[in-house]
Design brief:
Elements (H helix, E strand, L loop, with lengths): L5 E4 L5 E5 L21 H13 L16 E4 L4 E5 L4 E3 L11 E2 L5 E4 L5 E6 L6 E10 L9 E6 L7 E6 L8 E4 L12 E8 L7 E10 L1
Antiparallel strand pairs: 1-2, 3-4, 4-5, 6-14, 7-14, 8-13, 9-12, 9-14, 10-11, 10-13
Length: 216
């Protein structure tokens, strides 16, 4: 480390990175930090400040996140924080709360005219998730003439939600199903799947799937 390098420390005093004169952190961090003597450094610095001001507002999560950072997903109107493994909805901070919040940072697109089993949420955190509801939002204009039958599962078929019928007739409608009774939670490393047992027929039925629940 040269005497004219910039040494960047985190809140605990740990060295995050060292930046030589004229160098930068590039894409290794969610913000670009530059070294001594960098040309047009003002634009780079103020752009970084603005991203902090808006909490990285975007429908896609920031790349190279760091533990503790905030991100506002304007596609789902949800604030998230990064726990070191994944982005978690900010509304789930209270472990005693069973409020309704998205369990994932983005919806999963699903074709309900095919008999498939698709993961719509994967728990990469150390917490346990408890699904409370699932929403199906049309992606495009549905033309299917019959509904699709499907269930939600973690380990075995229907251990989260027993078979329901999803038939959406127009692009301005949606389907929502509450998850209640004795159901399977999603532990660390587990995934929640939508299992289409009877596909829709007679046309297209493409949906975006959002799962809601509690975390503790």
């Amino acid at each position: 480390m040269a005497s004219n390098d910039y040494v960047i420390n985190d809140s605990k005093g740990n060295i995050v990175t060292t930046i030589p004169p004229g160098g930068s952190t590039g894409s290794t961090l969610p913000l670009v930090f530059v070294g001594r003597g960098t040309t047009n450094y003002g634009e780079i610095i103020w752009e970084a400040f603005y991203k902090l001001l808006e909490n990285f507002t975007n429908g896609s999560q920031p790349s190279s996140p760091v533990k503790g950072m905030l991100w506002y997903n304007d596609a789902t109107d949800t604030m998230f924080y990064y726990d070191g493994n994944s982005f978690v909805p900010l509304s789930s901070l209270s472990s005693s709360s069973a409020g309704l919040f998205p369990m994932d940072s983005a919806a999963t697109n699903l074709d309900l005219t095919a008999a498939t089993t698709t993961a719509v949420f994967t728990n990469s955190s150390s917490a346990t998730y408890y699904p409370t509801g699932v929403m199906f939002i049309p992606n495009g204009t549905p033309t299917a003439t019959t509904a699709a039958n499907l269930n939600l599962k973690v380990a075995v078929s229907e251990d989260v939600l027993e078979t329901v019928s999803v038939g959406i007739s127009n692009a301005t409608s949606h389907a929502y199903f509450a998850i209640q009774g004795t159901t399977k939670s999603v532990a660390t490393g587990e995934a929640l799947f939508v299992e289409v047992t009877t596909p829709a027929t007679g046309g297209s039925l493409n949906v975006d799937v959002l799962v809601y629940g509690a975390r503790r």
